[in-house]
Amino acid sequence: MHRFPRPPFFLVALVAAAAVGALAAASLLVSPRVADAHAAHRAAAPLRIGVGWLPPPETPDMRLYAEEGFELDLAAEIARGVGASFELVLVGREDAARALAAGEVDLVLARAGADDALRSRARIVETGFVSGLSIAMRSDRPLASWGELKGRVVCASEANGHGRDLARRLGATVKVARAPAVALMHVRTGECDAAIHDRVLLDPLFAKLSWQKFSATLPAAEPTALVVAVAPADADLARAVAGALAAGTSPERWRQRQEKWASTVSFEVYRDQVAADCH
Length: 279
Description:
The protein is α/β, with parallel strands linked by helices and 279 residues long. It has helices at residues 12-27, 32-43, 71-82, 96-101, 118-121, 161-169, 180-189, 199-206, 235-245, 251-278, and strands spanning 3-5, 47-51, 86-90, 107-112, 123-136, 153-157, 173-177, 194-198, 221-230. It has a 9-stranded mixed sheet. The radius of gyration is 19 Å and the shape is globular.
């Protein structure tokens, strides 16, 4: 397990689970006494936050990109809300419950389906983000079904493990890209037949005029929710996390995040494609 310090900065069954989780989160609003206790406890050590992917170390010549999901942003938001520094710890989704039970991390940010085993093995705080996977492809030669991905080249970002798994299960050849913008640019240049991402992030991207020729898609598949998992016995930390996230998990706040993601990624695609054309 690798640890990297990082400075702060971040379908019916599933929807029902998210709604129940939201109500539970509301009931977990942290009291000042609990917040103070957690702040004092965390002052001596950083909050260890498990995530499924770690970004590469930043270097002066590194090109910055918007990442696939919002785990890194929410990690920073949680740490600020409980008054702690934090470090990111690489934890696979299948290993999240074990890492929590072993005390290797304080909490884990993960994607979980409605019947995911993590929901019964950890204390869950919902974040309000729910999406299925979908694809972006050329509008002039779209695929008619998910099954037609077999034998095709599908781009998926480094952070999108769920997307890569789905594409491989469907028989596609997966081309791993550094970030969403790189994956989407490869669709525009013809290196990939499709790029796979969360549908709720593709929708605001497809609304932009510059993406109409690349806005063919498929129905969302395998929906999951972004959740915070805490050890079952750590009710105080769950309350503190819910309080830290309370102001930033409304539907309107998520709409703003998704719109910003789409605008940023669209600009990054344009920037990279212009740079490539100039060479």
